[in-house]
């Protein structure tokens, strides 16, 4: 018989689901141009949000688009072999969402942000896109979270 999950474990699972849906919602926003409020309502209506950190989902969905200029600049600084325009929409949604978390959510360890993005890249991205996402986010993390990254390397 397994032990019941702790509050922290439950939160981790809810955040993982929030990122999953937020990435899909950001992709939909980019591709359809629908309003964020409409997309938010659709996702909350069409999916079981009982095991989702709905507040985190909403933060990502509404704050990433309003920060695209800053986030895209951060992402561009981590690119080596392509331009922002050459990034497919799934990868771009993941990179923007993760760059936002690296910049704005200092309560989430940078390794968690990168691992979650890589995991979603493996699930939704093109073959080997997770490697590209990892490489770019490593550079963005070093920019945003230099001391935390350096401490993690020691």
TrEMBL record:
Signal peptide: none annotated. HAMAP family: NusB. GO terms for cellular component: cytosol. Involved in transcription antitermination. Required for transcription of ribosomal RNA (rRNA) genes. Binds specifically to the boxA antiterminator sequence of the ribosomal RNA (rrn) operons. This is Transcription antitermination protein NusB. Belongs to the NusB family. Pfam families: NusB. GO terms for biological process: DNA-templated transcription termination; transcription antitermination. It comes from the Bacteria. It comes from BD1-7 clade bacterium. Residues 16-141 form the NusB/RsmB/TIM44 domain. The keyword Secreted does not apply. One of its GO terms (molecular function) is RNA binding. The keyword RNA-binding applies. Keywords: RNA-binding, Transcription, Transcription antitermination, Transcription regulation.
């Amino acid at each position: 018989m397994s032990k019941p999950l702790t509050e922290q474990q439950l939160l981790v699972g809810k955040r993982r689901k929030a990122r999953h849906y937020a990435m899909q919602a950001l992709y939909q926003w980019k591709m359809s141009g629908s309003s964020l409020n409409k997309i938010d309502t659709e996702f909350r209506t069409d999916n079981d949000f009982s095991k989702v950190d709905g507040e985190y989902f909403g933060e990502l969905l509404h704050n990433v688009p309003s920060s695209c200029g800053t986030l895209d600049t951060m992402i561009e600084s981590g690119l080596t072999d392509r331009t922002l325009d050459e990034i497919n929409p799934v990868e771009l949604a993941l990179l923007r969402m993760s760059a936002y978390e690296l910049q704005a959510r200092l309560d989430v360890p940078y390794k968690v942000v990168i691992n979650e993005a890589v995991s979603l890249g493996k699930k939704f991205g093109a073959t080997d896109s997770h490697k590209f996402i990892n490489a770019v986010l490593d550079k963005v993390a070093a920019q945003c979270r230099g001391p935390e990254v350096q401490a993690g390397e020691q």
